[in-house]
Amino acid sequence: MNGFPHLFAPGRVGSLELRNRLVFAATSSELADGDGFVTDDMVEFYAERARGGTGLLVVEATYVEQEGKRLHHNAMLHDDRHIPGMRRLAEAAHAAGARIAVQLNHGGRESLPEISGSLPLAPSPVPSRFTAVGEPVVPQELDLAGIRRIMRRFVEAAIRARQAGFDAVELHGAHGYLIGQFVSPEANRREDEWGGDTRRRARFFVELVQGIKQALGGDFPIICRMNGSDHIPGGLELDEAVEIAALLETAGADSVSISGGIHASRPYMIVPGMSVPRGCYVAYGAALKARLAIPVMTVGRINTPALAEEILAQGKADFICLSRALLADPFFPAKAAAGCVDRIAPCIACNECLATIHRHKGIACTVNPMVSRELEFKPLLARPATAQRVAVVGGGVAGMSAAVTAAGRGHEVHLFERDGALGGQLLLAYRPPHREELENVLRYLEREVKRLGVTLHLRHAFTPEDARELAPHAIIVATGAEAQRPRVPGVDLPHVIMGWRVIAGLEDTGRNCVIIGGGLVGMEAADYLAHRGKRVIVIARSGLLKKAVHADRVYFLDRIRDLGIEVLGHTKLCEIGPDSVEVEPPGGWRRLLKDVDSVVLCTGYTPRTEQREALAALCIPMHLVGDVLGSRKFFEAIEEGTLTAINL
User: Fold this and answer.
1) pLDDT of residue 133
2) What is the structure's pLDDT at 192?
3) Are strands 474-477 and 622-624 parallel, antiparallel or unpaired?
4) pLDDT of residue 358
5) pTM of the prediction?
6) Which residues pair with 537 in a beta bridge?
7) What's the structural domain count of the chain?
8) What is the rounded radius of gyration, in angstroms, for the C-alpha atoms of the chain?
9) Which domain holds residue 445?
10) Which stretches in the chain have pLDDT values below 50?
11) What is the CATH number of the domain that holds 461?
């Protein structure tokens, strides 16, 4: 028994039978080509999740007309030429025992003119609350002919989906796109039959369901994705969402998939970060379950089988939608079914996946560097003809990832760490408020090091003598970096302390703290101290969080406001006194901060190069990964360690 009887019970959506209750939620992969056609990488991306045991795959938001497109590599289904590629997706899913649906979408006011080639279309001329650059674009209000045209496009796309062998379609009425704009009182200000009260705002959604049912018959399932709340003032809220869901059920919908948020909402964004509680949208599903007879799918930071099972067992949903959890580990279902929960690579809600999409690259994942590159790298994970002896020097995330990957391929791996525990910077990263999820990466890698038989050498700094004795075929150097001090007068005073020691709880900072550095570590230290009642001023030389992902930026800006943290941006540190700090804000004048109890340095890191230099003279292939090459995010460090081990 796997301990998850509800999770692995067969399920049904309309006429469609599913092998379990796990659904891969529609997730933009950015793997279609520039014209929206399915690529080989896209097929393998979905095939991997089907092989991992997911019951139903919902293919990412696929656009029904060019005018509604949002991203460069959005999938399209507005033309019959897209059917063969879509058929490849369906065949790949079916070959692995999964069922497959496609999510049909139109961006509405969220469409980008530089990508769609036209002015955004919307129910009302109300601009998006979220724009990446420039001024908000006022969309063109749809007239009746435009509404009917787009509705035909949805029906035509659904017909193509069935012709391609798909088992169902999902209508994307969540997250502030066109269908959701019609539903939302914030976006829909119309006073005709398409706006006003709940029933009229739901008309577009309802008639889409009816139109597809009329075209394809009652046995072709339609899933309606919608928000339980838009999480913005004046937007859709739960009581009205329940009423709209009931209208959709009456219209013929076979399931409702509930979510929340739009691009501009915070902290409950479309893709909630690690500061948001697990299961953040489950209450919405429970409210729908109390009203509807059709199955309800729920989503929102559900990243363990135990939580998924609990939701189902308590009757709060019929199906569990996973997105990031299946990026982190496509075999989440299979491992849970086999009782191997400890082997599931954890989603930590860091949202690096979202950041890579917005950089117009294939989607990526901090804990799984294979995402969107399955076709390229999976063959390289096979065991080599001849196993090598590999020395990994440094037990941070880069070194641990390298060791785990190399050992998984059958190499003999020795991992050397000069301190008494594995983890490196990760040992500190999970200590600030709402960063606890990061510990799960550390514990997962520790378990994998043990499971895969890596020989661990703690409190052991690897030397040339060790290399000569071990005689490795390759050395992977992952010795990391150490915190650096700025060169200013007073930096060596006793009340000047390093940020990592503060986060580790090793220093008494006193009441009034000045933090030097506006990067992620600086903001974590500020959050940590202000959360404990300290008065905090942050000195940021070049602005705040320049390299942070959007979710972290949103979180910390909100924390700055809520905790009363003062930020002096674009300000230079000049001198530190016994109880003062002198700075130079923009404009060239000086400001003296008085009554300072402690100065916390969060000014970056310098690579540790001594071991690398000592080993360089050996005639052994040497590879450098992680912070030893320069400052790295966890995403980059894990990727470098993994890919280096793959290529041994």
Assistant:
1) 47
2) 97
3) parallel
4) 67
5) 0.94
6) 514, 566
7) 3
8) 26
9) 382-483+607-646
10) 133
11) 3.40.50.720
